[in-house]
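Hi F.,

I've been meaning to write this up properly since the lab meeting, where we talked about keeping a consistent format for the predictions we share between groups. The idea is simple: the sequence comes first, exactly as it goes in, then the structure tokens exactly as they come out, then a line or two of notes. No screenshots and no reformatting. I'm using this chain as the first example so we have something concrete to point to.
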Amino acid sequence: MNTSVQSPQNGVKVIEKGTSLWADAFVRLKKNRLSMLGGIIVIAILFACFILGPVLGWLGFSATEQDLTNRFANPLSDNGLFGTDQLGRDLLMRVLEGGQISLLVAIMATVMTVTIGIIYGGIAGYIGGRLGNVMMRIVDGLLAMPFLIIVILFRELISGHVDEMARFLIDSWGWSTDLVLRYSNLVPLTFAIAGFGWLTMGRIVRTAAASLTKQEFVEAARSLGLSHARILFRHILPNMLGPVIIYATLTIPSFILYEATLSFIGLGIEPPNSSWGTLIKEGANYLETETTVLLIPAVLFSLTLFAFNFLGDGLRDALDPKASKD
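Output, unedited:
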């Protein structure tokens, strides 16, 4: 939006270019050095896991090929940049594929969490009244349950159905066995985390939707005869993108941590897949003798969590500067 300002010296009107709220937020974000550093690290890790890893695999490097004659090879040796693990496997490829799995689970679970939370919380906030309160009491009841225990139980409940679907795709439709087994293994954990991870998002969206429902632009939309669905999804929910983006950015590291915790105790990602949690678990068995096997995935895992958290804090300050001052 452009604005004209009259110069106090010569009375000439000067056209000043206006900026959008998103442009102003990006300017504030660039001033936060830690947040920008976190964003750069996140982009670098995503590039390494989802682009560099598959390219190296296409060139012939393998994360599963074993060479027992080269167990625990040192980093920067002829056996790979990070050396090898207890079975002689390339640790660099193991870390890249493990990061791919961990990030894929966290990102897919976050997308599902945001989608469910926005729809459920938006409806509860827009409807309000007794029905809206009942919907939120259901959320409060679910939040009172121990998250990890419920996730574990839900994962075990749906694992059998996912295995049946995987066998059906392989036997009836002729899908690749390796492809189906690799990605079907992610489904139970992803659905389990997202199935109970949307509750906090639902509460955040409900509060924002209840506040926006009282605004004048909603009353104007109602007076024009717009349907409730159009008002909710075209006018109310788009005005909550700021808090949703902030929460989604902060949710990804939480879900990475949940996945690593479950994989560490043997209830997460299963072979032939590996994640950062399984790599840390394997490395912990050789903590006193071969620290590199534990140190490398643990450092990348911690760096990813810190980077996402720094980026999320910066986005919160940029998109909601009033809250950051309180």
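Notes:
The first strand starts at residue 3 and ends at 6.
The CA atoms of residues 124 and 136 lie 7 Å apart.

If this format works for you, I'll send the rest the same way.

G.
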